[in-house]
Amino acid sequence: PGDPESADAVRAYGAALGRMAEPIVAAMEAELGVRPAPSWAIVADGLAGAAVAAGNEVMEPWAGALVGSWLVEGLVEVARVPAPRFVDVDAGAGPEGVAPTDLAAAADGEMADFDVATHLERASCCMIYHCPDADLCVSCPRRSVEERRALWAGA
For a designed S-S bond to 44, which of 81, 87, 126, 138 qualifies (C-beta 3.0 to 4.6 A apart)? Predict the structure, then answer.
């Protein structure tokens, strides 16, 4: 993590993915009247969320968060999107064990503690709660910060 060449390559990939999504976002606006900003937020959250999930899967959550942030930095070349916000959840520590991810430390090559999982504080809502048998997602931005963090912490 933190290698400038890798970061630049991942940013370029994020920009390329953004260019691929442009016609889809434009078509949804033209055909469905969907404003582009929420669509782009979903794209950004999708990229950052997938990267951090992959990092958690291989027990390198900070590397995943770093890759997610680079992907979204590349996406910014194509669309105005919010920067991803990541939080670390220290297993078993309760809501007090949830803290912002230290991306600077990750870029310096540091690794999260063994019992930490990193999550994305999403900017977009997937709207799944509109389904009859669904509730808000754990990470839904419609939940309060305190509620999301308590759910992540298992409280």
Answer: 81
For position 61, what pLDDT does the model report? Answer: 95
10-residue mean pLDDT profile of the chain (155 residues): values are 86 97 96 94 96 96 96 97 94 84 93 92 88 89 89 79
Closest by CA position to 148, among listed 131, 125, 132, 130: 125
Distance CA 27, CA 113 (A): 44
The strand pairing partners of 88, in sequence order, are 99, 118
Quick one: tokens of 15?
A: 């920009």
- Residue 145 contacts by C-beta under 8 Å, 6 or more apart in sequence? 121
CB–CB of 98/152 below 8 Å? yes
Q: What's the pLDDT at 32?
A: 93
CA distance 13 to 21: 12
Q: What are phi and psi of 103, to 5 degrees?
A: -65, -30
